[in-house]
Amino acid sequence: MSLVTALIYRRRHRLLGRLVQEALALYGVEVPAAVDIGPGLAVFHRGFGTVLHPYTTLGAGVTLYNGVTIGRADPWVPQELSAMRRVVVEDGAVLCAGAKVVCKAGVLTVGAGTVVGANAVLTRSTGPGEIWAGAPARKVGVREGTWAPAATP
After folding, report:
1. Lowest mean pLDDT: which of 13-17, 43-47, 125-129?
2. R_g of the chain computed on alpha carbons
3. Which one, of 126, 147, 130, 153, lies nearest residue 40 by Cα?
4. In contact, 124 and 94? CB cutoff 8 Å
5. Helix intervals (H) in the chain
6. What is the Cα–Cα distance from 132 to 26, expressed in whole angstroms?
7. ∠ CA(57), CA(104), CA(66), 5° rounding?
């Protein structure tokens, strides 16, 4: 586990939380305490420039590269008036360098095992195992391999 990943998991610590947030800020990483993060988060290239909205949920085994932004498509509207409710990044998803995931209304879901390409701007939900690229992002393929989440008993 990298230093940045370890700090992200410790950002809710009762006594050290504020110090951890400041240490993350030195890397240009903003992950509010309200963000729910599953086990196995991988952050590459120290996550430089990564910003997550407080209403974000990351599933198990999510991979984030540097410069990822998850947020609202209407930042000029006060949060309490925004139509955005949450962004959910499901298990095994990969958000490549510079990927932007912006929610206009309701809940935007990045499906399990989905890859959002470098510098893509994703504004809508995806299915499992899809590959999205471009600005605005569009589906360009389907992911092959062992990304699939474990079967539920």
Report:
1. 13-17
2. 15
3. 147
4. no
5. 3-9, 17-26
6. 30
7. 50
